[in-house]
Every structure is written in C-alpha cells, then in structure tokens.
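Kindly inspect the following:
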Amino acid sequence: ANLADAGKVAPFKPWAKGLYEYRQKTLLKDDPMASCLPPGGPRQFQVPHGVAILEQPERQRIFVMSGGGNRNWRLIYTDGRTFPHVEDETPTYFGFAAGKWEGDTLVVHSIGFNERFWFSNGGLPHTEFLDLTERFSRPNYNTLKYEVTINDPGAYTRPWTSSWTLNWVPNQEIEEYFCDDNNIDAGR
C-alpha cells in the first residue's frame, strides 16, 4: 500500500492511521494470526483455508467455522435475542452476533470485540467500540457476497463500508490445517 494513500483506505483517526502505517512499513510483522490468534471480525472471511457456514434452524443459529488458524468458530444467533450489556461481558475475538434474514440476505449485527486481532489482512486497527453490520447474500449459486459496515468511533472518524465476494464451493470439506505458533514461514 502506498502510505500517502492511507486516507483512502479508511477514515482513520490520527492514532489509527499511524498504527496502520507502522504495520505497513514493517510488512505486517506483528500480525496476531502469525501467533495463532483467531481471525476476528471480517478477517474470518479472508483466511487462506476457507470458511464453512452451516445454518442450524432447529437451534436458531448459524455456525461459522474458519479453515485457518485452529478451526475457530463463531455463532450467529437468529432467535431474536438482544445483546448482553457489553460492560457485563468479556470482549471476544468474534463478539456477540445476532442475525436475521431480510429476504435472501442474512444481516448480522455484532458488538463486544476485544482488541487482540487485526480485523483485516492489511492490519486495520480497531478498538473495543467496534460495531459491525454484515450482510451475506448469494448473487448466484457459486458466489457468496460479503458486505460489512464498520462503525468504530474509537479508531475511525465515521462509519464506512467494504465488500468482496467469495467462491462458494458446494459439498467441499475444509482441508485440515492447524496453526503452528512461531511458524518460520509466517513472515514469508
């Protein structure tokens, strides 16, 4: 990334822009995933080993398993529950997620994240104020579209959005992969 264009990446607050630029200058050497920490937030959908999504209507939830890291999982509840008071809970890598279907689109709202992960492959910072609204849809049978609105008043001057598509591979099992802490290949 051209550091002069950092302002085009996201609407950073000064400290967050500085941290992002530092991570870029050091070639992402401090990436938490290199130490086997989970890929929280949108990064769960940027891992090289894929992701599996299983709707469990009888349990009123959606199970999302990451193929990277150590097969971390996330639960998205679709039972209409309200969020716990964040002050009463310990922040997590995947936060607390509640979803609902709007036609053929799953809309998920998540809060309660810790600050121990980078929420993108490029090292975008965030704070415990991170609030995500994600939209999952399938514009065609083989494509999963992921859209996210990031609202983190601790790191950014305003909410902003990003989106990308993933190749949907039906009936494909996630390959077995386990993260190796202190992996000598992590920086290559």
Q: What stands out?
A: The chain has a mean pLDDT of 88. The beta strands are 51-56, 61-66, 73-77, 96-102, 105-111, 131-140, 143-151, 160-167.
